[in-house]
User: Fold these one by one.
Assistant:
Number 1:
Amino acid sequence: MTKLKVLSETDTSLRILFSGVNRAFLNSLRRTMIADVPKFAIDQMRVELGVFKNEETGELFESNYALSDEQLAHRFAMLPIPTFHDDFYFQDECPDCKDMVVDQRGCPSCQIIYTISSSGEDGGRSVVASEMNVIGDRRLEIPEAYGSIPLTKLYDGQVLHAYFYAIMGRGRDHAKYSPVSGVTFYSRQNGKINVKTRSKMLFDLNLNITAKDFNKEGILNDIDKVDLLRNDLNHVGSGTDLEADFNDAITLEDVEDEFIFQFETDGSMTARTCLEQACKELAGRFEALSNDFAEAL
Ligand SMILES: [Zn+2]
């Protein structure tokens, strides 16, 4: 039976111990997170072109900037847009929009609109993500932690007036819709003393792990301590003077059917939400597959 235990968690990262699973299962979970968990991202950008006058100072600004439109659109597209799966629809599933032609889709249930109105100054000024304003629900503002993401630089007389339209999509269509980074898993390992006498060579170096950390059978199975042991072993392993004498007196052994799975999100959703959505997507896929089988047989 599959069991999971959260080893560490922050808003945007999770480290989990999975038991009773195999690599194929975890890889499908990994791929689902990368490619299938829905996420909002900016898909269209409308720039207001022309010359604008600051009414107070009489200063003139022109919508002109160093980056090309495509580069600028790409930078905005990669921003983490807060995603609340229960409150929004894909445009082609939105009750109000699904029957419309693609160009005309977009309502408060399937689209988020942001605006920006920034002007440059002498010597150049970085335009950052916190300068974007959302039209509507304040929850959808770019999270404060990501407000300092630089988008472009505007110089004296330059201005950027633009609207941005974010929609929900999947990572398999474009990387901007992928909510995760660094999704990885590896076998859980235990430390094992193979030769007690020679193992002293490591403990005598006074690093992190001591002989007392191992149980009577010479096994170390505390996950955090195994991580420390992995570092310690670099002092007696390949490429060190002690390698030949130490000769694998302590080794790390894979634990069967147990894996450590870890990932981070880009801030568009919490790590926990991302995991829940991935399980939901996977369950939905297998249910559809079972229905197909039932019909075919
Ligand atoms: Zn809609």
Note: Residues 94, 96-97, 107, 109-110 surround zinc ion (CB under 6 Å).
Number 2:
Amino acid sequence: MDRSQTRTTVAAVCRSGRTVGITTSLWGAGGFGKTTLASAVCASRRVRRRFRSRIYSFTIGRDVRGRTAVAAKVTEVTRFITGDTKPFEDPDLAGAHLGRLLDKRSRTLLVLDDVWEHEQLAPFLRGGRRCVRLVTTRNPNLLPPGAHRIQVDQMSYAQARAVLTWNLPDLPKALVRNLVLATGRWALLLRLTNSLIAEQCASGAEPAAATEQILHRLRDSGPAAVDDPTATWNLDDPGQRNQAVKASIEAATTLLPPSGPDRFTELGIFAEDESIPIPVVALLWQASGGLTEIQTRTLCRDMERLSLVGLDPANGGTLSLHDVVRDYLRNAFGTAGLARVNGLLIDTIAATLPTAPPLAPDHPSPERAWWQLTTGYLLDHLIDHFLAAGRIPLAEAVAGDIRWVQARLTQRGPTAPWSDLTGIDTARTRTLARGLAQTAHLLSPTEPRHALIGVLHNRLDTHPH
Ligand SMILES: Nc1ncnc2c1ncn2[C@@H]1O[C@H](COP(=O)(O)OP(=O)(O)O)[C@@H](O)[C@H]1O
Ligand SMILES: [Mg+2]
């Protein structure tokens, strides 16, 4: 559904050499269509003509917190765009380095999706004279002075109606109107509601009756008197946003097969803003619900039809979860539930790997050869899953094991094993991270691999554990 803001943003991106920010007026609220708008801008003909193949999109997200993590993100972006792998501990130095490299390149569009804090953005604004930054954020205050701001809030009535009735048979006007009001013209909710009605119609339900049903559901759990047809959500209020999402998701999950709602909730353990490989989901669901990979794929498809998840069939299939939906799932689960399911995932993965002895008798045991994992998602987030399961000693043992460091180094470059260590933040990992950082200048890709590993062994082994 095209929005007027698409044209405004395309014009701003093509005309100005400045930063362009897509924001909401509601602080902290997601699901209004910022990411969708940014993608539409990148896909537009005018933008592609202007920037050619030099359009790069990165999601920052809430989880990139603290100087170390921000520096690692900047390094990752630098590596992706320029191939340069120079590691930095300091986000400002990392940003200045990226800026210098961008200065040497022709016109570039850098999309930074879902920025939460000023500290996450500042390093990306340095240098890069011919680089336009397109930033999406729920926090308009973090945009630099002079940035061109584009507001994306509730949809207009006509847009909302178009999203709500997309691909549906004709519905009574008054019913559509009431449902548009009941969704608060919130893009995320409109899409969920549309899919819910479409899915019921596809199996022969009477369209008006199905629509009536979801309208009641939204109203019953709604913010105002049930008998007030014009009652709408106050989307400024996080409590009401949660309630609105809860009503729609619960309505949608009733259409899943019997154990579907539980399996769906379990998806809340996966990392935010990440594509989750379906084979990894299959491992989890095999352990939690006895599902085969084929059943997992079928269930993922059911969830996609209801717009509960996004599904990309490329690379063996990946799922994506909007953070508003993920937040809902995590709340529904609670900390203990999340820890339990994270533990289940870890144990299931462990069972696929050979056992591994500690490097020396006095070294902590990693238990399994985690470094033999080949799935990017698992290598990137294994340590997070250990921590979420409360398995701190295991996290320490793996992140501090030279075999893991080597695997991460090869996979993502020097900042990855260092970020793994700093994410754990215990006395032991702090020491190891320092040791690794002191070695970082030696970890250039030109260094022969065996020499590098030798250096690392030396560094990590001579540090007191
Ligand atoms: N222009 C649009 N047309 C149709 N659906 C949209 C549009 N914008 C957003 N949506 C729906 O709303 C959901 C949330 O949008 P998204 O862009 O992810 O929001 P945000 O980035 O603001 O959190 C999307 O998954 C999509 O289903
Ligand atoms: Mg977004």
Note: Residues 323-351 form the longest helix (29 residues).
